[in-house]
Input
Amino acid sequence: MVATDNVSIPYTLPAASGTTGLEETVNAQGQVPSSGAAVTWAHFAALGSDYQNYYLTMRWNYVSWNFDGTTSGGIDQAQYNWFSKGHDGKPWIVTVTNPRTHQAVNLAVIEAGPAPWVGVADSHHHSNADAARYGWTNPTKGTPAGWKGVVAGMPQAAITTLGAVTGYPGNKGDVLYYAWAADQNAVPGPTGDTAAQQPTGDTPAQACNPVTDCSTAPTGNEVPPAIRTQLIVAGQAHNVPPAALAALYLTEQNGFTFEYRWYDTGKTNGAFQLSATDPAWKLSIYRTSGEWPAGGTFRGPFQFGPIWESTYQTPAHPDVLKFADAAYGAAAYMAALGAKNNPTPDQIRFASESYNGQTSFSIGDGIRNPDPAQFTTVRQLYADQVVHLVAALAPSFTAVASPTTPSSPAATTANSTEPVSTAAQASNSAAAPVSGCQAGSGGVTVNGVQITIPTNANLDPTVVGKMITAPSAAMARGLAAGFAELGVPYVYGGGTNGGPPDEGCARAGGAENSCQGTIGLDCSGLTGYILAQAGFHIPDNSDSQRAAGTNVPWSQGQPGDIIGFPGHVAIYLGDILHSGTIYILEAPDVGKNIRIVAMFRHDQDNILHRYWT
Output
């Protein structure tokens, strides 16, 4: 049984991930225009246009599906009726996420299908005789493990919101992720997090072309910057891996969604893959104030019971409902249970079992046991998911340098003295004039006009140690200051009037991920900071930076020039490897860090913008 914020759902989805197909928008009677046929649970279409434009079809598990799209065997009438009745007179809601574009949408469950063959065969090969050829087991409930074809369908409005490419033959379809919506009262349509999911830049921009322009789109696991920072400092305080805290948090907030997905998809690691804006992170709650609703006996982001009050609450971190305080409590609890000082998976498993403590899988507990041969208690299932998530999330916490004690207030989170990042510390000291060969800003080596690219996880490793020749010693200081920020989080509005990383409040006033305790820069904040460190003060937003300065042809570009894109700016570094590829230094987007990458976009301005003359 899947626990959501306001109801328990007894049925798993027929697929946790896969490509999508296109469905027709229906009318108020639930009919499609092409044939006049009605969708399976057509009565929900009368609720309004949101339900007609944002609905989902999947091969629901109430019946077995043949490869040709027909059904086989008897219907599970109880499950069918459950879908038909819905929740409080409305259909069940599924959240679909596109990890490439970071867009998410809530879709109403009103249709069953599509035919399994869609997306993997041409129009001449979709009879049941072709099932084995394409990896379909006839008949089957849901979607077989390892299936590579279309697993769902949705109308154009939903596909457009997701920025998705369908999985039809000839398309490089987006693999989408499907999960029961946390809020089953949600109205179908874009989720509340989409405003923070623009593809790049500090102003809204068009989504990149999925075939040519998304080569650096995020893959694997990403942790939202504000949450990541709090988990790191809490983990450091008690020598507990921050990935273990992240795994506890995800499990407490999402139940056994990930472990169920793992079993239901043939034990594939994709079950534990998240983007920084995945609904599982509950950013819609975190972004409001950092405070969770009051709740009942078990409260807050880490679901503490009365033991919090008596054992793990401290004067410095007293609020069980506040994410930062609760993370400290969870870290203290896990440390007391033995998951500290580079713990082994077995130590994390033991601590997680103790953290949960639940035993029975009885009906009263309402929890599905996906592997009775392995799990005899709920706490074992809980611990297994935590261990899986720790393994999946650990690289997200080691990709950039861990925080250390700050040397200035500007390197701390809001209203606390916890550190944010070593790079952020380094940026707080103004770059002094450099002569000879010595360390510049943040330990970056500068020799006159030459700057050595430092070792850092946030850049292409082939450029590490390469030297860039700046047009002047002043610009070399500015670039060195920029390199010192590698790994610092993108914060919307971060950097004020050429200043160092900040929370972004002065420029963004709480929009997107600003004013949430994370110290960082956005794209124009980074360019402004680099030029200010070189002694040049420039406009403080991307549009203004693109509109001013001296226009320079690309053939005359030099390190320190600004490249403009729609809604985005970056620093030109030049052809570092002499391979014909231009490299840039940029603060890319919410959920990402400042980085050096090859320029992969093709919508750049036809001139460069120069401020250093």
User: Anything to note?
Assistant: Residues 2-191 form a domain with the Barwin-like endoglucanases fold (CATH 2.40.40.10).
